[in-house]
Write a structure and sequence with these properties.
The structure is a homodimer of 281-residue chains.
Chain A lengths: L2 E4 L10 H5 L2 E9 L2 E2 L2 H15 L5 H16 L3 H5 L8 E8 L16 E8 L9 E5 L19 H7 L8 E5 L5 E4 L3 E6 L2 E4 L10 H12 L3 E4 L12 E8 L3 E8 L2 E2 L5 H5 L8
Parallel strand pairs in A: 1-5, 6-7, 6-13, 10-11
Antiparallel strand pairs in A: 2-3, 2-4, 4-5, 7-8, 9-10, 9-12, 12-13, 13-14
Chain lengths: 281, 281
């Protein structure tokens, strides 16, 4: 039994385990009119990761809730819908799925009643497709293998890293304790190195984004070599380095133009061959 | 400006960053009548750790909120108050402090308006003071040095470990990736090894509990040797091992009688010399 509520209308009980322990996960979905970009990947991920956390909810319940949410919010975003042909049009639908209330302390109740909280917001400004300015955060990223890749509500590391934004950077990159760049606060990374694409493996990342998955599949379908392994700490200084890209399901592929003041080569082709807006049915 | 709300009366806005990102922390305080056990340590910790997270709240505001909360909830717990002479009497006051609402995604707003959510509950059953049965959890504990020791709202590791309770154990112990026992799901650890007490250092633990701090100070005042370093993985099999104790501000010192079926020596003296109820003014 899934309880669905709408953020602006229904407040959350203070006993919800999502607040008490970050016991849940979320999706941020780019909408164009009434169509969800990368819809199947988002639904697959939230259903699969809820299962990993032991939150019992069916993919079909989530699918129905998404359809209802779109209908509920659509009126508010009709202006964006009319302008659906523009690249920068659309809106954002956020789904927070918690384990619900109950249990004894950290220990969840035997049978949980998950809670889905829906909210809508405007599309944020899109980044410059010619590339963005990025710096390293001083906050290390430390990933528990049991939770790796899951977009859980435990996001204090990303919050703490985000406090270091000074205004000029579009994103801050986080490194693991060995110094390897792992991901941005809200983006995954993929680099072009020699004749292959390189992206940190799921077990190393805090969030394995749907855009990351989409780009990997797209590149493989095009016959490109994609390796999932840690990026070298000195990545951008390697002679075979040819570019670094940020991946996010709202922003798509975002090339990095400078990293901590170092100019990087920028190539728009990855963004062109893996444009999630092209997948809209 | 601190917004204070009461859990049963005031629901939480769905946009609160405590729900969205676990962007906050909490305290669970044992009450005896209108007196808070280890009151100063709890207030020091929440004020100090809020500062580490960049949540701007003064200790005096927290102290005032605690006093108001006690007055608000006291009527509900008058039965427990009348029985205040019994060791097992009292109630629990929980304070959740979040960064409040606002900001752009993970990035907090320039000036935050923290939110304090108060709730009260009955005292849970006290453990057998002759010792309890514990097991190891299969969930590893992985600690970000920036957040080490802070009782943040990011507690999914403890939730996942707690899902492994089968009923017989009073606590499950978590180990770091090297196999060293670090802490229980809701307790800190201290062991007696030869002529010293050994407890994992703050930088290795997820939560540095106030009971841990109280016991360390108490032992040092009594002239005992206390070392803060990692416990050996084979701790209980070492010839100089003399006992393992769980520390929690609600339950006090709880001796471990068996660990994964291995009988351990139990000595009640640590519980006797560091009884937090003795500190009540």
């Amino acid at each position: 039994m899934l309880t669905v509520s709408v953020a602006d209308r229904d407040p959350v009980p203070a006993a919800d385990r999502g607040l008490a322990y970050g016991d849940g996960l979320f999706e941020t979905i780019r909408m164009v009119g009434n169509r969800a970009v990368l819809r199947h990947l988002h639904l697959d991920r939230i259903a699969g990761d809820a299962h990993r956390l032991g939150i019992t909810v069916s993919r079909s319940d989530l699918e129905q809730a998404l359809a209802d949410a779109i209908q509920y919010f659509q009126a508010d975003f009709s202006a964006a819908q009319q302008d659906a042909e523009s690249r920068n049009s659309g809106w954002i639908l956020k789904m927070i799925l918690t384990r619900g209330s109950g249990g004894r302390g950290y220990r969840p109740p035997e049978s949980t009643h998950p809670h889905l909280v829906l909210s809508a917001s405007e599309l944020p400004p899109m980044p410059d497709q010619r590339g963005v300015q990025v710096s390293y955060s001083s906050v290390p990223l430390v990933v528990n293998p049991l939770l790796a890749g899951i977009k859980t509500l435990n996001r204090l590391e990303q919050v703490m890293a985000s406090r270091e934004f000074t205004g000029g950077e579009w994103e801050l990159l986080m490194r693991d304790l060995s110094g390897a760049p792992v991901e941005g606060t809200r983006t995954n990374l993929i680099a072009r190195l020699g004749d292959e694409w390189l992206t940190p493996p799921v077990e190393s990342v805090a969030v394995a984004g749907v855009m990351r998955q989409y780009v990997i599949e797209r590149l493989k379908n095009l016959g490109e070599r994609v390796s999932q392994r840690l990026l070298p700490a000195d990545l951008v200084f390697l002679p075979e380095f040819q570019g670094l890209y940020l991946l996010n399901s709202v922003f798509g592929v975002v090339p990095v133009r400078t990293l901590d003041g170092v100019n990087l080569p920028v190539d728009a082709s990855l963004a062109t061959i893996s444009d999630p807006l092209e997948t809209l049915e």
